[in-house]
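Allow me, if you will, to draw on your knowledge of protein folds for a short while. A protein sequence and the structure tokens that stand for its backbone fold form the material at issue. I would ask you to consider whether the tokens describe a fold that such a sequence might reasonably adopt. Thank you for your consideration; the sequence and its tokens are set out here:
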Amino acid sequence: MAGNQFLMFEEEQRRIQEACDLLARAANAEAVLVIDKNGQEIARSGDTDDLDVTSLSSLFAGNVAATGGIAKLLAEKEFSGQFHEGEKTNVHISLVAQRAILVVLFDQRSSLGLVRLRVKKASEELTRIFEAIVRKMNQGSAQTQVFSEITDDDIDNLFSE
């Protein structure tokens, strides 16, 4: 992965979505979000229709960044997991492969223990997927190389003819 840039491939996107769907069912979660560290949604599952996923994603990313700052001040490498308990909704947040944030929203129909157990398994699968993405990015697929060689002038010429 080059810097904070993240290139998603169709196969890995499908696998991330499947892992997200499985986690939502297995943890009996209200919703599951996978977002990048910049707050961009990668996948979602569960009952997200009434959620402002864009705003939540940005706020969760900010929360993880702030927690990273706290960890540094306390001479910790990181705090890989967080839990927030609410009256109706609980939130479990964890880092996956230092590349993504996994958020599980759950209520009294589930438990923190069950969520942590299922998140551990899902995180292992997501880590394998993100590692596959990094390998593909490092290999520099032909498609990526072709698009990186296209200039703004090339695009202007294409549409002006």
